[in-house]
Q: What sequence folds into this?
């Protein structure tokens, strides 16, 4: 399983990378929307994209919109990991095609729960 | 709905406990000068230009960076210290957003380093609370820089 982490925060990229690797994902991490789209145009396609919403330049919703229009990414699961807690915003993200929503701050248990909801088998190594 | 002292304190406690497993307790006394310091802030795009600001010492920023990474060893990269301060301000902004009216978006966090007394200049009505976190003082400010049409009139409720 391959995961792409997209977050402008280095701390969050490192944290998510470590947590996902401990759940047996191979992980690539990029700091912004343009880099994410560039990566999504290449193979292999990720199985999962963990996407921040509020990023400089291109925000997560724009990344999502463009990713959903790319051929070959029909099976890509998108988990929006964001500090946004406003219910209207969460609804907007789900309507835009987000599969699951992970609220920051999060812990490994909430990440596991979302991964399982997306159909990934969570097997911790640490 | 407005930001009050009570919901600010509750939000700060919840965010820091959730993100870094540290308990933020309101402090009785104002913080003394510390140096060097880190200010991280996020601006809301509402008519009052509301802003959430976090003032912490560089020592606390380093501690937050380690805790955010769940790292048993101290994180030594100053870039990560600043990033952790910014990310904590970002999480506070996201959690406070429902209490702040007419917000469509908020900015990505900005981080400023300095020395001497902490804090950017604060204009307009503000809520200003000091906490103790991991033995360090932490100042959290929610401020309105002033309405465009009615200067000084904002959503902050001071009680």
A:
């Amino acid at each position: 399983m391959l995961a792409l982490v997209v977050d402008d925060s280095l701390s969050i990229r490192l944290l998510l990378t470590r947590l996902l690797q401990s759940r047996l994902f191979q992980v690539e991490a990029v700091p912004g929307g343009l880099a994410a789209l560039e990566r999504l145009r290449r193979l292999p396609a990720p199985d999962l994209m963990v996407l921040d919403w509020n990023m400089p330049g291109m925000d997560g919703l724009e990344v999502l919109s463009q990713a959903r229009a790319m051929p070959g990414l029909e099976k890509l699961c998108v988990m929006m990991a964001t500090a946004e807690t406003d219910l209207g915003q969460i609804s907007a993200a789900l309507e835009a095609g987000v599969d699951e929503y992970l609220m920051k701050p999060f812990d490994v248990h909430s990440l596991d729960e979302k991964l399982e909801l997306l159909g990934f088998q969570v097997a911790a190594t640490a | 709905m407005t930001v009050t002292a009570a919901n600010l304190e509750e939000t700060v406690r919840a965010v820091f406990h959730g993100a870094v497993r540290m308990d933020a307790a309101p402090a009785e006394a104002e913080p003394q000068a510390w140096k060097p310091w880190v200010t991280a802030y996020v601006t809301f795009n509402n008519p009052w230009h509301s802003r959430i600001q976090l003032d912490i010492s560089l020592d606390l920023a380093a501690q937050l960076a380690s805790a955010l990474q769940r790292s048993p060893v101290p994180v030594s990269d100053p870039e990560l210290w600043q990033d952790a301060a910014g990310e904590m301000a970002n999480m506070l902004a996201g959690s406070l957003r429902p209490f702040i009216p007419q917000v469509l978006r908020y900015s990505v966090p900005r981080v400023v380093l300095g020395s001497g007394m902490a804090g950017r200049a604060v204009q307009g009505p503000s809520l200003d609370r000091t906490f103790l976190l991991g033995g360090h003082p932490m100042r959290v400010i929610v401020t309105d820089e002033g309405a465009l049409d009615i200067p000084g009139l904002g959503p902050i409720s001071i009680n």
Helices of chain A lie at 10-22, 33-40, 60-68, 87-95, 108-117. Residues 2-117 of chain A form a domain with the Rossmann fold fold (CATH 3.40.50.2300). Residues 115 and 121 of chain A are 7 Å apart (CA to CA).
